[in-house]
Design a protein that fits this description.
Shape of chain A: globular
Strand order of the largest sheet of chain A: 3-4-5-9-7-6
Number of helices of chain A: 3
Oligomer: homodimer
CATH architecture of chain A: Roll
Helix content of chain A: 10-25%
CATH superfamily of chain A: Electron Transport, Fmn-binding Protein, Chain A
Structural class of chain A: mainly beta
CATH class of chain A: Mainly Beta
Distance between the termini of chain A: 20 Å
Largest sheet of chain A: 6 strands, antiparallel, barrel
CATH topology of chain A: Pnp Oxidase, Chain A
Number of domains of chain A: 1
Radius of gyration of chain A: 18 Å
Chain lengths: ~160, ~160
């Protein structure tokens, strides 16, 4: 898997030196994404490829976030077939633009809709809530089947 | 189109007040993404949905970045049919996690591979270069067909 990071010459003063791209191992990927934060969910929706920023929480090894009940994102993430789960990718990163260093982690996995009251209540107790409060009431969980990461660092 | 941003209760002290979600108009989306920066490209590759961080530059209304010649990303982004372009989504955002505010912009469009020497030379002159220097030699351009954005702000 390749990842590319380009930049404009004006932001690359020669004094900064060269950068190398390294793979991040599984344990370190999990450590990097374990604080709650903003990630991006990517999937193919009714209008083609989509990528949306969401605030997530890592809970029992799964990525959990809230979306609007009956919203287009929620509908897009259902296959319409019982027990058939939608496949998505989820990305979290942190870059220092001035230093031209940073990391990104990609999780691939299946979307699970939290439709049972017991599971919903467990997540509410774990503290997952929405930023824009109100109608955003639907919990989505991504169970990772693959996690990979890359780091750009000083050579 | 809905976007969801969830957060843990511990990071939402009551004193911070409520947040609202607003659409960002086309002109403001372009203004927000016009400085070069890090974005995320999303597409369906051979291993399912993918989302990768890339350093991009906005050049003549298109998103331009570099990837490795003959890399898997480059291969994934080719349809194999002449003049048939691969559809992708591209996301750029900026969030203040402490304040729980920020914005994200999504561009949807077709991938154009810069295979001609003249176009390649124009982009090199415009200053697009790779962070990890070396074999990353293939320019990719996304021509937007749709741009949308959302902002989370103090109510």
């Amino acid at each position: 898997m390749t990842e590319s990071v380009s930049w404009t010459a004006s932001q690359r003063p020669d004094g900064l030196g060269r950068r190398a791209l390294e793979e991040i191992d599984h344990a370190e990927c999990l450590r990097l994404i374990s604080p709650s934060g903003v990630g991006r969910i990517a999937f193919t929706g009714r209008f083609g490829p989509m990528v949306l920023a969401v605030g997530y929480m890592l809970h029992e090894g799964t990525i959990v976030f809230l979306t609007a009940q009956d919203g287009t994102t929620e509908e897009d993430l259902r296959t319409g077939i019982a027990h058939a789960e939608f496949k998505v990718a989820f990305e979290i990163d942190e870059f220092d633009v001035d230093e031209r260093v940073g990391w990104s982690v990609m999780v691939q996995g299946a979307v699970h809709h939290v439709d049972s009251a017991a599971e919903r209540s467990a997540l509410l107790n774990a503290g997952v809530k929405a930023w824009p409060e109100g109608a955003r009431e639907h919990f989505i969980r991504i169970t990772p089947t693959m996690i990979s990461g890359r780091r750009i660092c000083h050579r």
